[in-house]
Amino acid sequence: MITAVGAEVTRHAVGQRAGVGCLVNSCRECKKCRAGMEQYCTTGNTLTYAGVDRDGTITQGGYATHIVVDQDFVLRVPQAIAYEAVAPLLCAGITTYSPLKHWNAGPGTRVAVIGMGGLGHLAPGRIHPRRQLEAQRPDRPGIPG
């Protein structure tokens, strides 16, 4: 929940539901940042957890009671979605979604998910939410995972 905004904030307001993903800052000047790919910032992005921000402070991530973040790194959370359902999507969810989006993996695209835990457990819902996942153990070909 947004509790305060700076004078130059235009996209968010006090009282809005919001979330913060794995990044809270970047240089915003390099080629990658200007292309909207801050995760590849050539001078170094600032991670939400234990990252060193541009002002030298250490980020506290989800372990903090409050977080100060530039509006560019804040996402609106719809009323219809519970915060506990949103939390995994802001980290592991975007990590699996981003390459699928980048490579235009749409209907009919075959996608391999390596590992079904952590990030991998969110990928099937991003690939096709209505289809079952067929898993196979790499150490035992032909034997379901």
UniProtKB/TrEMBL annotation:
Please give one Pfam family short name: ADH_N
Which of UniProt's keywords are assigned here?
Answer: Metal-binding, Oxidoreductase, Zinc
Highest taxon of source: Bacteria
Query: Boundaries of each Alcohol dehydrogenase-like N-terminal domain copy?
Result: 2-79
Which InterPro entries does the UniProt record give?
Answer: ADH-like_N, CAD-like, GroES-like_sf
User: What is the official name of this protein in its record?
Assistant: Alcohol dehydrogenase-like N-terminal domain-containing protein
